[in-house]
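call fold target=E2 ubiquitin-conjugating enzyme
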Amino acid sequence: MASLPKRIIKETERLITDPVPGITAEPHDDNLRYFEVTVEGPVGSPYENGIFQLELYLPDDYPMEAPKVRFLTKIYHPNIDRLGRICLDVLKTNWSPALQIRTVLLSIQALLASPNPNDPLANDVAEDWIKDEEAAKQTAKKWSKLYATPKQ
């Protein structure tokens, strides 16, 4: 396996030595560009108490190209589709090589705290959110309990 760029090594070390509160990101043993990520649902959000599994992959062109991130845990959210893909500006049009893995993870955590049904990826969920936000939040809570609660 080709050696990793210094930047990826530095970012990985920082994620481990100075983790983002509520987020873990650990490189996979077989592929150090592939991270297993957990994000705790933000307090006060419908995702509170949920632990969400994500995968993050750094493409060969990283940092010129944004990381690929997707939810593995099923989630009811207007900006995350059934396949776990995430509609987030820093992963698409607003990506900049100045951003880091931790910035992306913080942005995902912020997206959980404040869903944006006006820029949806899951149109049906966004419609529900716009029609009856309270009911949509209850569904999000129910799904979080069902799919994102760690097994005891």
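return ok
The radius of gyration is 16 Å. Residues 89 and 136 are 23 Å apart (CA to CA).
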